[in-house]
Amino acid sequence: MITRRSLLNAAFAAPLPSEGADAQRPNILIILADDLGIGDLGAYGTRDIRTPHIDALLQAGMQFDNFYSNSTVCSPTRASLLTGCYPDRAGVPGVIRTNASDNWGRLAPGLPLLPAVLKKAGYHAAICGKWHLGLESPDTPTERGFDHFHGFLGDMMDDYFHHRRHNRNYLRNGLQEIDAEGHATDLFTRWAVDYLDSRQGKPEPFFLYLAYNAPHTPIQPTPQSLERVRRRDPSLPAKRAGLAALIEHMDESIGMVLERLKTNGQAGNTLIFFSSDNGGELQSGATCGPWRGGKQDLFEGGIRVPAGAVWPGRIAPASRSAARAMTMDVFATVCEAAGVAAPPAIDGVPLLSLLRSHAVLPERDLIWVRREGGPRYRGRDYYAIRRGDWKLLQDGPFAPYQLFNLKDDPGERDDKAHSHPGMVQALSAALAQHIQRAGRTPWQRG
Q1: How many angstroms separate the CA atoms of 243 and 240, rounded?
Q2: What pTM was computed for the model?
Q3: Quick check: 97 and 153 in contact, CB under 8 A?
Q4: Is residue 326 within 8 Å of residue 68, measured between CB atoms?
Q5: Which residues touch 162 (CB under 8 Å, ≥6 apart)?
Q6: Domain membership flag for residue 2
Q7: Within 13 Å, how many C-alpha atoms sit on residue 345's CB side?
Q8: How far is CA 230 from the centre of its chain?
Q9: pLDDT tens string for the chain (446 positions)?
Q10: Distance in angstroms (rounded) separating the CA atoms of residues 386 and 404
Q11: Which of 26, 72, 344, 444 could share a disulfide with 271, CB 3.0–4.6 Å?
């Protein structure tokens, strides 16, 4: 079993070179969890869920305390990760679903995705796991720039062992529909390890996007993981125990992937990002640290997520940053590390100078959006915008705007909208400009 000590050996904690030192183009590994609350990792303070492998990974590089997902739900954040743009500018303001009447996005045709950009620098690109950015041609992974896809096209699985959604099989190897036996977390891990093995000794660098659907509902851990949690803490409520087991199983799986990187000799020159697509689902027993709200909410608990980056010899181990960054920034950062120019119109900013030398990021507004159907949302958008310590949010399309000063009120309890109308006006005006700009991108199939 991999340990925190072994992760911090020479493979993951090489001495830092000078800034001007030449470096081989790194391999890129992005690991994305699904609905993982920032309060459900040991590295962020939890005590009833044990995540030694993720904790060690974060300890091996820079851990973020103010990292944000681009949305409160799955598809929009994933679109931002792979385009470097705000979700509505990428054509995915809401969740992409099987039923067209409840579908709220389509990845913009012609918009370059990260794997296609990295190909300019000679990268081989793969995704293992959850795609959730298109269910049919031409919006499948290998048609949008990936060389290899082994995973699930859809959103959540109705069952982690049977791998169906609405009785449809979205499991694919490339374009081929497949069936497979086993828990989805184990399948995605095995396929990722197989891919790493296939790239061993190859001259070109690789980009692997490993997207788990854990710990998204249904909360369905393996029996072995659940029994271990119950033995360790019989007093843990059943809901929390199930979630803990599902997260711990994913943590073990991530450890296997990291171990294979090392045994293959790939770890020493691999830039790794880890994060979650949004906050934890409170109804499933998740915790989002001290923050208000969870998944679907634009309060901090719904969008402030765990995150970290590791690059041996380039990012100092055991470093920590309070800088505000977003999922879409990973795109620009990867491009900079790979030595390839990012598309000029993206919204994300590169984080490499922050990661390497704690440089200060430029001041900028941060914006969040989600569009959704159903009786609560009825096809409408709702938004949040942050400028400095001020955050204007609407936690639902029919809710009033609220204004919070996160420095004085990190728990978002003291609404300042009535006492600071000038700030409300300034932030709502900036948000309106964004909405006009994003409105140029269609989000539904014709």
Answers
A1: 5
A2: 0.96
A3: no
A4: yes
A5: none
A6: no
A7: 7
A8: 29
A9: 444 445 444 456 544 443 333 358 999 999 999 999 999 999 999 999 999 999 999 999 999 999 999 999 999 999 999 999 999 999 999 999 999 999 999 999 999 999 999 999 999 999 999 999 999 999 999 999 999 999 999 999 999 999 999 999 999 999 999 999 999 999 999 999 999 999 999 999 999 999 999 999 999 999 999 999 999 999 999 999 999 999 999 999 999 999 999 999 999 999 999 999 999 999 999 999 999 999 999 999 999 999 999 999 999 999 999 999 999 999 999 999 999 999 999 999 999 999 999 999 999 999 999 999 999 999 999 999 999 999 999 999 999 999 999 999 999 999 999 999 999 999 999 999 999 999 999 998 76
A10: 9
A11: 26
Residue with tokens 């090489």: 14
**Domain that residue 198 falls in:** 24-362
Domain-terminating residue out of 362, 394, 410: 362
**Are 254 and 190 spatial neighbours (Cβ–Cβ below 8 Å)?**
no
169 and 190 in a single domain? The answer is: yes
Rounded to an integer, what distance in angstroms lies between the CA atom of residue 312 and that of residue 418?
49
Question: Order of strands, edge to edge, in the sheet holding 171-173?
Answer: 176-177, 171-173, 148-152, 124-130, 206-211, 27-33, 270-276, 307-310, 62-68, 319-326
Question: In which element (H, E) is residue 302 found?
Answer: helix 300-303
| Residues catalogued as catalytic | 74, 132
Tokens coding 438:
């994003």
Q: Domain tally for the chain?
A: 2
The closest of 104, 133, 106, 155 to 380, measured between CA atoms, is: 104
Rg of the chain (C-alpha set) = 21
- CA neighbours within 13 Å on the CB side: how many for 59? 17
